[in-house]
Amino acid sequence: MKKNSLYYFYIIVLLYIIGAVFDGVAIYNHSKEYVKDKSGYVEILNFEDRILNVEEWMFTGSGWDSKKSTSTEKLKGSEVHYNAALTSSYYFIVSSAAFILMVLFVYWGGSHLFKVVGLSMITIALACLVIGIITPMLEIGAFSTNLTIPLKFTMPFIGELDIPDKVFEGRMYYYFQSKSVIDLIYVLLESRNYVVAVSIFGFSVLVPFIKLTLSVLLLLSRHFRNSGLVIKTVGRIGKWSMVDVFVVATFLSYLSFSNMNSGIDTEANTLVGLYFFLGYCILSIASSQIIDLAVREEHDTF
Which of 38, 165, 242, 298 has a beta carbon 3.0–4.6 Å from 78's, enabling a disulfide? Predict the structure, then answer.
């Protein structure tokens, strides 16, 4: 009896959603704290503040010692928060896998198998999409390590003055950015790049949500499943979703920036948000296949 009733499925979904919300909030909060501490670390080592700092130019000054201590503390704090975000992400993955396995265990061999598996994938995909949108996905930075400035002067009647080079110990940052999709859209709106902002929001946020909503309606409503227009719309709307393209472009940006040879050191790190976006892409494709199977099975039955 339980294999042919969706009652148990709704209970399992509710429990999963509660757990996913807790994991998602934890991932978001720790990711934000990570960015806050990492940005604080970079701000302390910003090139303008270091080069224009009189204490750092003084060979006997304590400017660098103070910055080193404070920046190290900020960096350690950021690492703690990022590891916490990763831990919460692992909890999310485990709970999602358990969710799918539980659904398969309860409904294996039943008439609603493809329907509940499809709905399960859509639920997880929606969670991945939301987390991927609100959490940072990529950080890039440009810096110098132990920047050395020669201090050689030639004066009339005296000749060349041999002064020891000035070495700015540690890192000196020239550029750093760490943004989520929502942050990127907000920055574009602030800079009046409305067309780009609306395009990113529409193709990478709005269209995926519409596709997931229509997919749920297809699986839950026989009227929608019997509508050829709705089925074609769900199939075609995926072509207008640029999330997969966005993920590939982000990976390419990561690879190109991390391998830049511009005379300064560069860093490019992928963050948890990008992997949740990737998870959405995979689950969205998989759920589309499951929906096709569910629709065909119903048509064959009737």
Answer: 38
